[in-house]
Design brief:
By secondary structure, this protein is an alpha+beta fold. It has two domains: about 100 residues, no CATH class; about 150 residues, Enolase-like, domain 1 (2-Layer Sandwich), CATH 3.30.390. It has eleven helices and six strands. The strands form two sheets. Strands 1-5-6 form a three-stranded antiparallel beta sheet, with no helix packed on it. Strands 2-3-4 form a three-stranded antiparallel beta sheet, with helices on both faces. Helix 3 crosses helix 4 and helix 9 packs antiparallel against helix 10. The longest helix has 23 residues. It is elongated, with a radius of gyration of 23 Å.
């Protein structure tokens, strides 16, 4: 085990002994000094998580959240120096965290908050020219084989619970009361950046299915087939209009090459 790894363990977990050779300049107790530093490190990481997972914390309360976050921090230390992006593994951790089992939607709410952060920090991309999109959509022969590239900021959440409504109920002026939400209702959302704002757009099952397959680089015809299988009443024009309106189509690859 490397010296760096030994130090990392000692900084996060009091169960690990202080590294050999640890000393202080003023001859104070190095173990006690390390404990103070360890507490500062853990608190700073928990604070970073609390800034990202605002609704998750509101759902369980600050005391529960911070206790859970401390367990998470020790199991999942940061992999980069950018604390603003820390916590992408928290939703999976929550799903396996027994004390949170009474809130089955909690992990998906945390995943929504993770995707919002990823959308915020995603790379910029120039949307396709609307005239080029119109030309492509009018070519009935080429349409099924088109492969659309979507904006890097676009993410999809699919939940077996009403995670989107639960999150929305905690937003100012949403008009949604938490006590009126059917928690057992499955929901989906498109999460993307529009200008400087991150949008959470609740999507019907068929639109979510279309986007899911487009994100997996399926041909447009295949994605449309899956969307109609999910809901025979699928409105393709409405779904494409949503992607175009929010500038989420970046390029297309088809019979005649790439179009931007």
């Amino acid at each position: 085990m490397s010296t760096q790894h030994i130090w990392a363990q000692a900084l996060l977990d009091p169960a690990h002994a202080a590294p050999n050779g640890l000393a202080t300049w003023n001859h104070s107790d190095p173990v006690r000094r390390l404990a103070v530093h360890r507490n500062n490190v853990v608190v700073s990481l928990v604070d970073a998580l609390a800034q990202t997972f605002l609704v998750t914390q509101q759902l369980v309360g600050e005391e529960f959240f911070r206790a859970m976050a401390q367990v998470f921090v020790r199991a999942h230390p940061p992999r980069t120096r950018v604390l603003a992006q820390y916590g992408d593994a928290l939703p999976g951790f929550i799903a396996r965290f027994p004390p949170a089992a009474s809130l089955p939607y909690l992990a998906d709410v945390a995943q929504l908050e993770t995707l919002r952060l990823q959308a915020l920090h995603a790379a910029d991309a120039t949307a396709m020219d609307p005239a080029a999109i119109a030309t492509l959509l009018h070519d009935a022969d080429a349409l099924p084989s088109l492969r659309l590239r979507l904006a890097p900021s676009l993410h999809l959440l699919r939940s077996q619970h009403a995670a989107v409504s639960v999150w929305a109920a905690h937003q100012a002026d949403s008009g949604i009361a938490l006590e009126q939400v059917d928690l057992a209702q499955a929901e989906s959302a498109l999460i993307f950046r529009s200008g400087l704002d991150v949008m959470v757009w609740q999507a019907d099952t068929s639109t979510a299915t279309l986007v899911e397959h487009l994100l997996e680089h399926a041909a447009l015809g295949e994605a449309i087939d899956h969307a109609f299988s999910a809901d025979p009443a699928f409105n393709l024009s409405q779904a494409l209009a949503l992607l175009i309106r929010h500038e989420l189509l970046v390029s297309a690859q088809g019979l005649h090459g790439n179009v931007h």
